[in-house]
Structure formats: C-alpha cells, structure tokens
Amino acid sequence: MLKPLVIAADLDGTLLAPGGTVSERTRDALAAARADGCAVVAVTARTPYGVDMLPDLLPYLDGAVCANGAIVYDIATGRIRILRSIRISLGRKVAAAIVKRLPDAVFAVENGTGIVGEEAYRALVGSSNWEFADDVETVFKRAKRAVKIKVYCADRSGEEMAAAVEDVDLGGLAMCHWGDFGMLDLNARGADKAFGLATWCRERKVGAESVIAFGDMPNDAPMLAWAGRSYAMGDAHPEAVAAATDRTATNAEDGVAQIIEGFLNGDRLDGDVHDNDATAAA
After folding, report:
1. What is the CATH number of the domain that holds 180?
2. Potential cystine with 183: which of 5, 55, 178, 271 (Cβ 3.0-4.6 Å)?
C-alpha cells in the first residue's frame, strides 16, 4: 500500500490524546491527509452524541462509525443510521443470564440518541445524554430500542467479566471487553467495528486493501484484522496487537499522526506483516 484511500481510527486511546483532546499535530496530519485525497472516518464505541462532544475533531472527519459498528453517522447532515440493533426482549434475557454470573453487574442501554442506565452509573459518567433508572427492567423499558448494552462491574476487570460469562448463552450477541476497565459491550449479532467500517467503505466503493486502521482495545481487533494495513498503538491491549499488522507510538506521542506524516512523505506502508512484534515507535 503506497497511500490509503481511507484512514479509520478509534478515538479514545488512539486518535485522541490522553484526556480526550485532539493534539495540534494530529489535526494537522488529518487536514493534510484529507487535502491529499484521503477520507478520515472515526470508528468508535461512542454513539453519535459522543462524537459531537469533540468539536475540535469534527471538521477533520468525513464520517463516523459508532457504537462498535452498529451505527453509521453522517456528521455533515446529522443523519444517524442504525445498521444493527438488539431486540429488547433478547436484551432482558441476556441481562438476566449475566447477573447469575456477575451479581454485582449494572446495565445501561444505548438507543442511538442517548443512554438509559442503572443509578450506579451516575457517579461514573455524570449526566450528558444519560437518563438513570432504579433497576435493569426499567432501563430496558425506557430505552425502547437497543443498539448497544453496557455491563459494568466496579470491582472487576473487563477480562475477569468476560471470563465469567464465557459460556453464558448471549443469544448470538457480539461481546467485547475493555481490558483492565470493568466493562463489557454487547452488540447485535454480526455488529462490530469491521462490519460497520466495511459497510461505510463499500458504499463508497473502497475495499479493505485501501484502508489503514488504528486502534488500541479488543473491540478494535476486528477492524484491525479487516483493514489492508493496521496499527496497534504503543500501549495497546494484546488482542489489538495480535490483530494488527504493525505497531505505532502511543496516543500521547501522536502515534496516528506519525504514520500519516510518514505516508504523506512517501513512505510505503507495505512491509512485513509481522512488524507487530516490533517495539512501538518512539
């Protein structure tokens, strides 16, 4: 790959600097890439209102794939298109099964425009587009529609949670975890970042071979494996590293910008696909 047609990047921990800001170097790199004919798409667990909370980034994006691939968001028009959703009845059933293994679990449901969560989430997230309910049954009743179900355990890691529900019947829902952070995400069958990004690209007649992707967490792994070239961040979770073709520096070191600057300067992107064993760039 000499130059990609699409740059696809996770946001938190990847494109965004620590603290959720967008560095000047990253903005400059994205602007230069777009001026050179590349499209830039955010591929994130956030839903569209979460992307809208980044006004310094929006001018540099051509679109967003949200909720781990369940939503395509047209930033220019504000159109939200839900690709896959979860039946509320199935969500209730799966939540009941999870509670048997994780009795301390609390739930939230993202419906595309907001989130309804159990009261225990309030101290964790504040308000924003959240609505809070006293119990999980009320959460599902108020949400009315589910594009993603969030499961949180304050005293467990995401990996521990995933192991605890490994053999639970999730009704075909796709599950990912957040490493050390005690959160699981559940999406509709077949909805992941690779699915959402592939949908966005197919509609623009772009194949995986023309896409370069960046990520740092297990939910990024399908996208990193799908893209023609992909980079796990310097401090990425092992599942992301294993899925990617390469490594770059951390988000604190503007790792995404470093790669973009390189290919805009003529560096080729097609090296040894085992480069991900190398040390991240300084």
Report:
1. 3.30.1240.10
2. 178
Residue 84's contacts (CB-CB under 8 Å, 6 or more residues apart) are 69, 70, 147, 187, 188, 189, 190, 191, 195
**224 and 254 share a domain?**
yes
**Domain final residue pick, 172, 187, 202:** 187
pLDDT tens profile 3-52:
899 999 999 999 999 999 999 999 999 999 999 999 999 999 998 999 99
Q: Which residues of 2-21 are buried (b: 16+ CB within 10 A; e: fewer)?
A: ebbbbbbbbbbbbbbbeeee
This model's pTM is above 0.85: yes
Question: Which tokens hold the place of 32?
Answer: 């230069």
Q: Which bin fits 256, alpha (ψ -120 to 50), beta or left (φ > 0)?
A: alpha
Nearest to 136 by CA among 122, 149, 147, 123: 149
To the nearest 10 degrees (0 to 180), the angle between helices 24-35 and 255-264 is 30
Instruction: Please check whether residues 49 and 69 belong to one and the same domain.
Output: yes
Is a pLDDT exceeding 80 seen at residue 105?
yes
Tell me if 260 sits within 8 A of 33, measured CB to CB: yes
For residue 108, is it within any domain? yes
Within a domain: 282: no
Amino acid at site 187: N
Residue 33 lies in a domain: yes
In this structure, the chain runs to a length of: 282
Question: Is 70 inside any structural domain?
Answer: yes
CA distances from 238 to 120, 127, 225 (A): 30, 32, 13
What CATH number is associated with residue 31? 3.40.50.1000
> Cα(33)–Cα(51) distance, rounded to whole angstroms?
20
